[in-house]
Amino acid sequence: MPITLPENLPAFDILRNEGVMVMSPDRAARQDIRPLRIALLNLMPKKIQTENQFARLIGATPLQINLSLIRMSDHESKNTAADHMESFYRPFNEVEASGDRFDGLIVTGAPVEHLPFEEVTYWDELRRVFDWSRTHVHSSFGVCWGGMAMAWHFHGLPKHLLGDKAFGCFRHRNLAPASPYLRGFSDDVLIPVSRWTEVRQEDIDARPELTTLLASDQVGPCLIEDAAHRTLYIFNHLEYDSGTLKDEYDRDVAAGKPIGVPANYYPEDDPTRCPSNRWRSHAHLLYGNWINEIYQNTPFDLKDIGKG
Ligand SMILES: CC(=O)SCCNC(=O)CCNC(=O)[C@H](O)C(C)(C)COP(=O)(O)OP(=O)(O)OC[C@H]1O[C@@H](n2cnc3c(N)ncnc32)[C@H](O)[C@@H]1OP(=O)(O)O
Ligand SMILES: N[C@@H](CCO)C(=O)O
User: Fold this and answer.
1) How much is the ipTM here?
2) Which of 129, 149, 201, 271 gives a 20 to 30 Å CA spacing to 68?
3) Chain centre to alpha carbon of residue 101
4) Ligand 1: nearest atom to the Cα of 46
5) 165 labeled binding residue
């Protein structure tokens, strides 16, 4: 939430230049408040775990959030019970036909990164979701494969297969300390990574509409902004629980897959020991900052979303 300060107090400009939310008394007097409408397009197989992870983060701000769960219309979930999907999710077809608008949209990752985008069965509908988001959503956030898919659709940013899985907790540099999305971030941030693909910094740099906010020397770009469309792409997993990388590692070991111990995750890289969560605070900061930024800038009247 912003702080209201007189516009001629030195702290007004100093804090604002640092990225702190500062408001003049004049603007504060004119603030309208309503619940924010956030949609989660959940493409992950373990949908309940993912609902919990994102709801926990976007639910930790002082603002009232209405969460809508959306699924691809014709995709039958193999790993989440049909009655759960029936009870809590709306198919995108229905959302599109309703004309509903949202302040925010999160598109999750999906374990289909080894496939060309066009071989994902719901690719055509997903492209429709992306185009719809430009006219019905104020701000979008694509996560891991969801971010890569969105960045491919809008910017032609290619993903590349890695020889070895990028797997573990990696240090990332804060490249934009004054960005409102990184308010309160340390200069150096530890983030869970779990993917077989990457996007490359040189491909991002060739697209002037994109800015890199967080990047790692070891696993490359992480958080990218398309400011003109209020869109963020994150290729790593700040939302993961303490044990998510462990679950993925144990699953792959049990399946006999050649997988290394996730880097810098277990104490002394010993998978028999209990991992500790060293990213939770930055997860809350990032998603809290996103919600805050939406709250500051989304139109009060929902029907004005997507017009500017
Ligand atoms: C890169 C990122 O975005 S990271 C995010 C992905 N991470 C995760 O999913 C972690 C958790 N996932 C898992 O542990 C595993 O995927 C499991 C154990 C749930 C299932 O693994 P498997 O049995 O090997 O694969 P399975 O055949 O169930 O397919 C996994 C998912 O991909 C979907 N899928 C597979 N091929 C395709 C395709 N061509 N088009 C669309 N979806 C596909 C499946 O439908 C399933 O999703 P669903 O549960 O929503 O139906
Ligand atoms: N995070 C994913 C990567 C595969 O897409 C997993 O390990 O399941």
Assistant:
1) 0.91
2) 149
3) 19
4) 19
5) yes
